[in-house]
């Protein structure tokens, strides 16, 4: 959507300025087109804003993101007594990178390379969030902190804002998951339970089908649709996490770990390890601190 704002996991937003306003009279939001993004949070009252012809009325404990280069303005409909916080920020995106959409369901690797951070996070455009009960306090603290002159002042504020925006993103994800919770989500949970229990074994589609008492093709299609990865990919990630744990915490060699995890032979184990993690088990072991 052209009105949505995305963060990337490999770069934090750069805050231009942050502050708080209050109006005691009827107020109109400025008519403008900006070269940076805007976050608004209404602590008290209500603010009217129009962005490219779409009208928003931001009530108390609600937020709105306004996207750069889109025309936004307001009529004199913002209520007297309205108090709001604002953050002006710039998102930095490397145009050479094709950022993926992150999906929060399913196992994550415990060992990250730089390309694992190349995914985008959609910020919730408008509304309330579960964390908004503490938002005013956090924004007030960040605003006051931004006024204290010190080294790395705005870098610190930008990192705090990034963490705050991540919380908004996760709040929206959790709300969406709760709204969609049902039979399919329950199936995903049971599949993950099975995969975790059998992470030290070769994947068994028939065993999973019998455990779930459902057709494997149906399970596979549902899992892929909701998590964005196949069941086999999820199982492989779990096995690689087990391998990483064994490499870090035991004196087992590669052959012993391969056998422990149910691989056909250590050469196949090494090939899977390198495909998933980008380097061989021996290379990984060379830079371990144990």
Short characterization:
Keywords: DNA-binding, Transcription, Transcription regulation. 41% of the residues lie in helices and 20% in strands. The protein has 290 residues and is an alpha+beta fold.
Description:
- Helix 1 (135-146) packs antiparallel against helix 2 and helix 3 runs parallel beside helix 6 (231-249).
- The protein has a 5-stranded antiparallel β-sheet, with helices on one face. A 3-stranded mixed β-sheet has the order 1-10-9, with no helix packed on it. It has a 3-stranded antiparallel β-sheet with strand order 5-4-7, with no helix packed on it.
- The protein is elongated, with a radius of gyration of 24 Å.
- The chain has 2 domains: 6-177, Regulatory protein AraC (Jelly Rolls, Sandwich), CATH 2.60.120.280; 183-286, Arc Repressor Mutant, subunit A (Orthogonal Bundle), CATH 1.10.10.60.
- It is built from 9 helices and 11 strands.
- It has 290 residues and is of the alpha+beta class.
- The mean pLDDT is 91.
- Helices cover 41% and strands 20% of the residues.
- Residues 189-287 form the HTH araC/xylS-type domain.
- InterPro entries: Homeodomain-like_sf, HTH-like, HTH_AraC, HTH_AraC-typ_CS, Tscrpt_reg_AraC-type_HTH.
- Keywords: DNA-binding, Transcription, Transcription regulation.
- Pfam families: HTH_18.
């Amino acid at each position: 959507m052209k009105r949505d704002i995305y963060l990337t996991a490999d770069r934090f937003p750069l805050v231009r300025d942050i502050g708080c306003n209050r109006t005691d009279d009827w107020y109109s939001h400025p008519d403008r087109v900006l070269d940076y993004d805007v976050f608004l949070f209404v602590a008290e009252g209500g603010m009217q804003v129009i962005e490219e012809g779409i009208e928003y009325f931001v009530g108390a404990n609600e937020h709105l993101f306004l996207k750069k280069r889109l025309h936004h303005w307001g009529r004199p409909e913002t209520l007297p007594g309205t108090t709001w916080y604002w953050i002006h920020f710039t998102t930095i995106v490397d145009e050479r990178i094709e950022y993926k959409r992150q999906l929060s369901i399913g196992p994550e690797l415990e060992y990250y390379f730089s390309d694992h951070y190349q995914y985008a996070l959609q910020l919730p455009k408008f509304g309330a969030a579960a964390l908004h009960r503490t938002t005013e306090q956090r924004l007030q603290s960040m605003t006051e902190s931004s006024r204290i002159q010190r080294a790395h002042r705005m870098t610190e504020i930008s990192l705090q804002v990034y963490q705050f925006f991540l919380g908004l993103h996760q709040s929206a994800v959790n709300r969406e998951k709760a709204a969609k919770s049902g039979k399919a989500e329950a199936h995903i949970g049971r599949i993950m339970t099975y995969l975790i229990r059998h992470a030290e074994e070769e994947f068994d589609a028939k065993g999973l089908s019998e455990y779930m008492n459902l057709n494997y093709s149906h399970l596979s299609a549902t899992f892929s649709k909701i998590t964005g990865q196949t069941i086999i990919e999820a199982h492989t990630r779990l096995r690689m996490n087990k391998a990483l744990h064994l490499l870090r915490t035991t004196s087992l060699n590669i052959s012993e770990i391969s056998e422990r995890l149910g691989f056909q032979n250590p050469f196949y184990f090494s090939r899977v390890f390198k495909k998933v993690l980008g380097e061989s088990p021996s290379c990984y072991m060379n830079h371990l601190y144990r």
